[in-house]
């Protein structure tokens, strides 16, 4: 806490300072122990052990007091006050390295090393140490180069670590110890000192280890080479009761030791009487010599006799308070003064190296020695813990701030920076209060570190039903004198006898939560302290500093403003008190409160600071950069009285206000504004924009009451500065038509030319009926209806062109990004819309809705809404959308079909697509649901097109399948009430064309059914066209009968084939050949009856259809098929169909009637010979079955003409060749130039 400035004496000027917490270490809850930790060990050691230990120390102390020269380390009784003071200190230790570069914190089980580079915030090393039962009796010391850290334990062991916490080596105490005896605290280290002595190349430093019983050991140490004992020394003669502190004076190489004073020696110097001595280092044994003057040397020769020494010993009263001594000391930065702390609480300042007393203060003479922290006195709960935490009021630690100021730390937690002359506290009227018993370090970089521990005792809670009989009341409770005496008696008996009978009741354990902190107290400048006070939110003190040192108080109000919630109060209390105009306006522009009312208030506050009065003041140079609150009505109505409910008075007030505004405007030349004036106008325009947007947002949220609950400051932060066109587009894309309606109403000036483009950004999935109120329309006169716009307030003076164009000379195209994303919308950009543009937009938007969302119903709905609003040219679009709607929602067309593709399709393709989605079961129903409406639509647009479409559709279907055609003709029967095709001529014409168009051979049954659906010939008068159509139907029926015959015999042919081949002789002949040959190649041979049935059907085909060929040709074809069927029985059957003799003129008596007309003899010979030759040529040898078939064929001709005989001879020649062993194919025999040559070749063999 900074004190007031004192200029009486520069050496005693108050110090401006600040506190910073570098680190804290919360600890786990533990049981609090009020007494000395040594009491714990007593319970673990027997009474005999305790008596033995006490006896040994008493004997050694007695011998040391007699002056017997004991050259080895020996234990002793330490002064009770020394033990008490050390035990009052906190368990942890802190030590700062050279120049404050590093700091070590010795904790319970580790030593933590931190670096100055980041203000000791991060850990650079950590070393492990064992838990010590007496942690207050440990010490820390850094080597001069900060490479080694020595850490002592209460048993005298010294561990040395490097900078990262790695243990380098451990030095054990050489004092003999007995594990069965209690720990002797006189073996603990009183001082660890790294001297400036350079032992050599192998060793980097010298380490002095001084124990409390007066033993000194010098070690040469090195990080790599470990340690070696250099020499040892004991201070037994000078300090029989041990030493309390030791320090090293580097300039004079003196070792300054403090301990129990020699108050009985009147000839001794003051320093010796106080227990302070100096020892010079010798190069050889005994290594140290007490520095004395002549008087001391003379008194030394006149030493006391043995009896006098005995009488001076007071072993039975070790706690005699008359024996004061030194337990802590510290050299000043210039090494000329030494501060010592005494057991009694006395503070002494000595000159060094003379050790002459400079000044001394007893505890009672020290200012504020008995003060207690207000945190304890003013807090009743903490006041109860005072006697647990503050056991005395002595000084516990000392260090130097500078050569004229010392740092004092008391057990109460008081830290003072005191003058060495007057002990005046330079921190102010009161000390800086740390937690009780803090430790302090030397000063570095204008500050020092303090280590404190905060102890908190949780509130006691007694569990219901808990058994507390074994526990005694807490120490916090008041007890009577009799109770205290009884407890004391039990304690004494138990201590002496160790009998459990006398064991006192256990006390209720007191739980404590400890938190250690590393705190820096650092001097600072007023500016630095001012900044820190603001950072620490100590605004009252910061304002006092600002007033005292003439600092900028705006910083306080700025921080308060930043930390506070924006409201009317915070604006009035903080923002209005800030003078800097640019900062205030920046806050009004940039800060967005979470409350809509506060947001509105902040913007209006900014507008009050940017009005005409401020603009005029800036132009005249009268503002000084200050924020000026303007009020046009200030002083305007003086000496006037107005009735708030009188319209005339209100009109008069408005006139006066406008007159003042015009007067102020006349003082401003907007063409020559300076930079500050332009900035003011720019800020005002921006504030107006934010205010308008805020009101718009409030309206969007549902009004004043709803906006108070739904206001989102994060959204408004974006919305207020957002491009208004982009905001409108965003609302459109979010399908928030109400918000868009508000935007277009109150910001229509900037949105009107982009109206259609904005509407195009509505989500395609949003039904147009939701935003139908935003759709443009045309009135009955054919004029486009304009949007009804409004404004939030009367136009401000800064919004007129004379001001706006100066501040914003370059106008930004707000809709540029909109048209960059979609250049097609550019054609709809217009400040004045026309009917043609609206019609084009509706069509475009319907296309986009269907293309992006595939929601045809939404596109159709938009077109219907356009028609309702008087938009022309949408009828064709409506028809196509109706078709698309039917395809999508009724026909369930594939998703791949787009509306654009549909519009580019021909009407026939549309019809085909529509009906392709109908199932066969629903086809008849869908003819009337889908086809008829679509054909009607086409007929309406193009008269006569429906018949053409229907004919083409049926013909196309018939080419591949008659199934759906049959359903169409069934729906067109003349007997139906509402036939699909009403005109009989049209029906017959389409049917004939469809039946002959089919390319499939398996549709004969369906064709018959279609014919059955056709109207029958009537007897009445008919048109010539209808008569002709009926004749064509009769012809069709004959063709169907022929197709049936072909189908029965495995030679399927479509109707169009029969029609086309009816007059083609060659085609008809081939058909007959195929028909008969197919029958001969069947897997199951035909019976004679089946062959005869085939013969009759062939004659029927010839008679009914294929009259282009003769019946004789058909008979020859049939006979030839029998001869070539490779079956003997069929060949024999063929004999009944031919003339077998040249003289045969009449059939035999047993020949059937249908065999009466036989094949003529010449043709018969030809057919037989051809079949025989085919069998002969295909034979492999004489024994081949085909050779037998050839003989059978030849044997059909009974009169054996020459050609037949020649073929028979050829077959006989094969037998001769076989007899002579000639292996040759029959075909080779036929192909030989002469059969005789072949026979000759055979005879030679």
TrEMBL record:
One Pfam family, short name please? Nbas_N
- Renumbered to this chain, the signal peptide range is none
Q: Where is the Neuroblastoma-amplified sequence N-terminal domain?
A: 92-376
Which residues span the membrane?
none
Highest rank taxon of the organism = Eukaryota
Protein known as: Neuroblastoma-amplified sequence N-terminal domain-containing protein
